Amino acid sequence: MNRRELLGAAAAKALVVAAGAALGQNRPAQSPPAPAPAAPPAPPQVRFSYDYVVRRARDLAATPHEPPPPLPESLAKLDFDSWRDIRFRPERALLQAPGSNFRLQTFHPGFLYTRPVTINLIRDGVPAPIPYAANLFEYGRNRFERPFPVNTGFAGFRLHYPLNDPRVHDEIISFLGASYFRFLGEGQKYGLSARGLAIGVGAKETEEFPVFREFWVEQPESGADKAVIHALLDSESVTGAYRFDLYAARDAVLEVTATLFARKRIEKLGIAPLTSMFFTGENDRRYVDDFRPELHDSDGLLMHTGEGEWIWRPLRNPTRIEGAAFLDTNIRGFGLMQRDRTFEHYQDLDLHYELRPSYWVEPLEPWGEGKVELFEIPTSDETNDNVVAQWAPAQPMEAGSSRVWRYKITATMDESEITPGGIARNTYRTRPKALGSAEPVTPTMARFIIDFTDGQLPFYAKAPDQVQVVPSISNGRIVRTFLVPNPQTGGFRAGIDVDVPAGQSADIRAFLKAGNKALTETWTYPWRPE
Known about the structure:
mainly beta, 5 helices, disordered N terminus
């Protein structure tokens, strides 16, 4: 029973007593008082479940979308530094039941986070909202004229867990802003983000950002390394019920169940969207005025197709917005990966790009026809998330329809747990060089150098004559190729010279094989001579 119900019940009881007393004053003296009616039996306690969130989402989809209530002006006008100065008091963290490994802290509303979010705790199957209270926070230099009400809400929340040290509770997952969330495994630093849902990414119309407007966090069992979170999603076009099962480990795993209800017809739906940053890397040197050689949270898109092919697409910081689509049926997995784990390639003592996790998405049931979409947006600095990858179903979602999606996301720094064969470790681009009487080099030619490593390549490095590079190009031509062992990586270095007409574009592909056996994933790269 919440506070409103409790006060209402008390008021109703007082009204009945007062009415009975008034009637008693008019009753004849010899008449005995009428017996009080028997109280109706209390309804059985219904335990909270994911089905409750599904019903909420279904009912919400049948009503028009409503904008959120406004925040108090003093919070809405906060700038980033002022908002960041408001910090949760760690000693007030929730979920501190005996034996619990998890702690919950909330984010204060304000700045960009102007939609109040309700956060409920579930104990013994019964949910109760966390009331806003000023003593949950340190306000730093901020001064407010009066306390905010208990229904002010929060901007989001995060969970802490002894991830790297049994004596220290590290942040393991965070939900903050729209439907964005991030989570970590052991030894990892925050980099890319995931989203609950994306609508209209890359479309001509304005992109729609669904929001998680309410959460329910279950009290973990004593000693458990698993946390369960439920969320209600809302936007102009869709509502949704989400369940997140978080497994804390070296490679943290988040299992997701999403039940969506369409208010409107949705042409471009993005399932399991990932958002990251790529500013500069060994394959893209447009920005070199920095002592740090590379700056990126992710350096490539990895896909495992329904037919079993592994595809690697290095990321870029293009000069114009670029979109790519990889058609597939029943995709087995995709993710934005950070392959480069060498500190010297980043030289950043504070941000540690080499410790940013890769997020690998795997459907837990067939997803049917669709495509993996990749969007790359130009950026002039490293503060902008300029890369989006998502699964786009082939069919639009019709108004009034519903659909369930189940998948898991793994946060990892060890890709060998995912890919069984050889991988394209590094990609470089340069100008080709004429060799003797070979064909002269023209301005439209380019050379791509790919370092293939891992899998069975160290085995075949002992007999390099058995390995071949298999290149192809969608437009233009392959001028020449070469393949040599790379003793520094234990693999092979492949070179591909291409010639694409000026002003035109092409997709280049290559993999290594021995006989009829593919030894590596397929490297692919879009190219347009400038």
